[in-house]
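Newbie here. two chains, one complex. Structure please?
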Amino acid sequence: MRSIFLKELVQYFSSPVFFALACVFVGVAGVFLYNAVAYANLLATQISQYQASGGISVSAVVLRPLFTDMSLLVILLVPLISMRLYAEEKASGTMELLFTYPVSDLKVLLGKYLAGFSVFVLILAISGFNTALLAAATTPDWGVILASYTGLLLMGGAILALGVLASSLTRNQVIAAAATLGAVLVFWTLGWFADSVSSGYLGSALRELSLAGHLSRFFNGMIMLKDVVFYLLFTVFFLAVTLRVLDFHRCRG
Amino acid sequence: MPAEIDISVFVCLETLAGSDAQRNQRMIAIDDLTKVYGSRTVIDRVSFTVNHGEVLGLLGPNGAGKSTIMRIIASAVPPTSGRVRVMNCDTVAESAKTRRCIGYLPENTPLYPDMKVESFLRFAARIKGGKKNGVKDRVRNAIVEFGLEEVRNRTIATLSRGYRQRVGLAQALISDPPVLILDEPTQGLDPEQVYEIRQLVKDLSGSRTILLSSHVLSEVSQLCSRVAVLNKGRVITVDSRENLVSRHQNHTKITIRVGERLDQALEMIEAVEGVISASSSNSQLLNVETVRGRDLRPVFAERIVNSGIPLLEIVREEMSLEEVFMELVAGEGETRA
């Protein structure tokens, strides 16, 4: 598993894709930070004009919008990280080598998943520079920041599992990324359908399956067990399906 | 688990030094193997064995099932029915063990185009060796053994086909496996590279058991001690090259070159018992076909020399493997039709 993990990292860092992704993600996150701060500034000016009492909450006005925007970035970023994991092996024919090396499909899968996750964590960590800037200017609520990052990591991990599955189904990386993005958007908006579909069990089931629904509590500074478990189960489920797909490929040749 | 490799290598060493019983050890045993894709039967009840130290050539036209057999042995694909045992371990039930004993070079040599030669070999050494110990040494040895010093830091995508093939062989051999499976190892190479790769395979044979596929007949006859001829997913015959040729040879061709009086020599030879046909192709050369199983060269020589005609050359031509192959494959088509 370690050998696969290291190989994937070597491949990530030897291609310009990683650097392009990191630049775009960190740059756009910076723009979002500027927006959030500028908006907070506007609000603060208006509040002081009306001479309302007290200031504004950094958590509510800056952090929550910032992390909500960043969650959209994560949705766009992770499929681009996961797309190559299996599709590339299939396109270059090296899948056959992997199948014949003395290592189980599960270990290959975990090695690949962890490598993708490490790259995601790394890019997210670079964008942590934003938070450092914010901390220099104000005194943010570190609890909210910690919870928000936890939420982003868990959701990113879940999307990555979905992306690995999509990547194992095709030899074309663009198709893998597009399919992942499509599936994520469906899972993201499940909560919206829920209200229109039914108010009964089906509605609440759909709401619980929504990727977005579980994220909002993290951004309010709450880490709840059911949200954590949801993302972990989501991840495990799609990794397990990927294993089945690999087994199927092996038999089909 | 390098321990298993060690044992197998130990067995190999012992066999090299040891008795015939060990020499005849079955390294690969294929028993009633069938592979069906959808409604297409790609491999049809194939059985054969490869003994220790042997180089077996899989010979057949494209689509005969050579690659599929090799992929099943290497555990890339499971069989539909029947089984394959490598060093007495089942390739399905004990595939973790068998995969450790096999070095496999798939058709067209798939490699990671964006990786550097050295880091790819390091990956192969790590994933095959399990433990970290010896990875550095094995990579260094492989780079030297396969002449990859110049390109060790080059990206695989920029390598020539010859170098790619060497990298492919290096990854197959990096853990020193007792069994080697090479699928069309010289395909797409220029003559010089073909020669290099054949030389490498020759050097490897002896201590290792090699299964090699090809549709180049001269390659098979140069490298392999035995040949399995395949057609349409079935094994037509498995035999040594010499046996194949002698078994399928219906008549013997003899070429005689004389200095003068060609017509007189022709008449004389036509009169010999056992000659099927004789003809002259130019002013010096006689082409003679004789019945199988009798060597008439001494008779011809004696008569020509006795009559005072200068005899320059007398050669018996063996039927080529190519001719045998064409005959076998054509014969198979007829019996099926």
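Moderator note: Residues 1-21 of chain B have pLDDT under 50 and may be disordered. DSSP finds 13 helices and 14 strands in chain B. Thread marked as resolved.
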